[in-house]
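A common beginner's mistake is to predict each chain separately and then try to dock the pieces by hand. The better habit, illustrated here, is to supply every component at once so that their relative placement is modeled jointly.
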Amino acid sequence: MKIKIIIFLIILNLNVVNAETSLVDSNKIFKNLRCLVCQGQSVGDSNSEFAQTIKLVVRDQIKEGKTEKEIYEFLIEKYGDWIVYKPPLNKVNFVLWLFPYLVFVAGGTIIFLFLKKRDNH
Amino acid sequence: MQKNIIKLSIISLIVFIIGVFFIGLNKSSIYDTKDLVGQKITNIQLDHFSENRIITGEDLKKNDFTLINFWASWCAPCRDEHATLLKLNNDEKNLKILGVNFKDKKNNALKFLKDLGDPYDDIARDEFGKYSINFGIYGIPESILINKDLIIIKKFIGPISKNDYNFIKQIVRKQ
Amino acid sequence: MLSNIGNTLLSLNILIGISIIYFSFKNLNNNKILIGKKIYHLCLFQSTFIIICFLTLVSAFIVSDFSIITVYQNSHSLKPFLYKISGTWGNHEGSLLLWAIILTIFSFFFLFYNKYHPKNYRIYSLIIQNILILGFLFFLLFNSNPFSMVSPTPKEGLGLNPILQDPALAIHPPLLYVGFVGSSIYFSAAMASLITNYSGKLFAQSIKNWVLISWSFQTLGILAGSIWAYYELGWGGFWFWDPVENASLLPWFAMSALLHSLIVLEKRNLLYFWVIILCLLTFILSVTGTFLVRSGILNSVHTFANDPSRGLYILIFLSLMIFASVLLFFSKFKNNSYNLNSNSKETFILINNWFMIFYLITVLLGTIYPIFTEVLTDHKVSVGPPFYNAVIIPIVVIFLFFMSVGPRIKWIKNKFYNLNLLFKILIASIFINFFIIYLFQGYSLMSNFIIISALFLVFASLMDLYKSLKKQNIELPRVISHLAFGFLILFIGLNYNFSIEKDFNLKVGEKKVFENYSIEFQNLQLEDFKNYKAVIGEFNISKSDENLNQSLYPEIRIYEKPSTITYEASIRSDLLKDYYITMSNIDRSEYYNIKFQKKPFMMWIWISVIFISLGGFLRFFKNAKKYY
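With all components supplied together, the output reads:
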């Protein structure tokens, strides 16, 4: 009974959840791009010459109808992987994305086995 | 036995991490795009500086080698490399130099060339800097050496130095 | 002259450190029960001299003695008085002196306040701590000496970077150092505990207040850094997962895990070796963070000036520390039988540790991963906020639920009789979340989960708060910290989803209209100040559906010594939101690039963190009252 109530409420919430807009968010892209001439700032936060130019180009590409992924691929091709803050999921970066969750699962397993051993005493 | 394996692997892991840190100390943490060579530049569309036409990749394919040099009148280091560019234009017949005037005013650019000389076989204009992104430019002066097939041979970040000059000479004369 | 005093005191302290170690070993082998007075006196001298040494450097900054290189490179006679003082530790060499002070003072007080613990344990703690002190003093004297001189004496200093001249940044290092440098003392105590086999409840009691103090200060130190980033750096954010920020967060995760595990060790005499690991890990992470930040191995927004020899020294020091502690741990480790009840508070504390380790590994991995890709594959990648947010936030949702339930569970065999109450709290949270979406605007699925779980923790803690105020029991500090943590996540979630950001170009006299906001660039003024010139813009914000009329004055500041340009954000705060504008010039144009932001609940984010650390201080004072 309780579970049904919770599910009902969650569905109620989800109906009001803002659907992911299909519009590409320029701000989100700017924040994911690294300013190459600054010390650790995103294009979104930087006012450098380079950042301003990139903003123009990205805005143009959004108008042309390019998707977020396509814009990142274009910039990665021109400037290297370093320019995006979200490491692309490829063979090399697999470790980065997977390892934390492996640790999480391992930790949970250790605790579970630990307690199971104790309970069996 | 199992305990020893665990201990050994932990110690090896620590040694490995510290080793990587040692080596990492000697690497520079400043990023540059010098290694992005070997790709083909596509979609070249540059406004000509004075004439009412567009410079495309087809135009550049006519050259054996093209040095695309991004410059502006307000850029101080651009002055430093100007003499080298003039020399390259003069001496190397296999090489054509395309100057891209970056975020500049026409009058200032012309004055700059009048005062320091014009090393360019052709000049393009990138008024807002947008087209430079297609070439992977992030600051000026920056130059790209491409071949007949529009493949990037080398990128020069900053003014072209003596070493760069010798390198270009070597490549261009190989034919 | 000041330089000579400073150098003399440093050398003297090295001698004292060596004597302390010598006499400590002698004390170990004699049959007396008490520690000899000589050692106390030496420790007192050690602390006194290092404080005088530090004050010497401060004086050099105050009087602008430019014959000393550190003062020359980081100060200027026109600098405001307060920042002359804080300039002392706003540079690499001076901050190392601050390290030395904390190491030394903590060493002395730990010796003093542990009178009722075994002599050998205290002696070994002293020895290890003094080895650490000597390591840093050698580093200070021979590599990064704040008292080295430059000749001839320059007439004027190079000045301190203006963005560092800020009150939040002035107290940020001292707060952080009491935090993660202070963790050195329980590193040493842990080593001593292993060597002398002093374990269990009594060991926990020996170090718990030290862990509390360092954790509380670390929390405040991180807060000061974020406040500085928000007010000074001009991007409107307060956390960027920058390597320097991560370096301060890593020890904090370990300290939090340690804090909770100590409760189990003290109450139930369990988890001893895990507690030892955490004690060692905290300080190791502190030194690792220092290495990552000062060696230049990583590219970051707030790096100090870099010098490869520093990195080498710190790395060698770190390696020795790690190997010594790991080998000692392995030699002393015994596989105990555990007496844990699966249905009790201990389980939840283990769960807390599990999550803290997850956060720790994630942040550590993200921070050092670029080093590995570069060394191993010669390829540079960036790991930034999108990675950390994507990996950590989903797990935080689950964590908040555990945080709400855990403290309510009893130590021995718990009966889940309050499951009904928890269910009601969950319903309430989902309802409130629904109303937020309904009244304002919707947000992503993950945000829904975060806000619901944060509300859950808030409500659960509020119930606990009510109960604990009625009963006046010792639960109050824990309730405050947990409640504040729930609020923190809640406000961060709301702030993230309801922030407005608009980036546009404007010239004087123009107006930008969007949604129902109207921003008018009214005026531009040039003003001269003592050490800089400012271009001040006047912006008027009005809202069509509200009676809003605010003026903001962002600045572009041109400093001469050193020659820099900074962009000062103009911020108008009230309890509900901040309005935030930055202005920067566009080269060769009369247009200015304007960034306007509306950031809800910023004040509450800061207040929540203050209350988190307040819980720690409260617990510390309650403990202190009981024992001393």
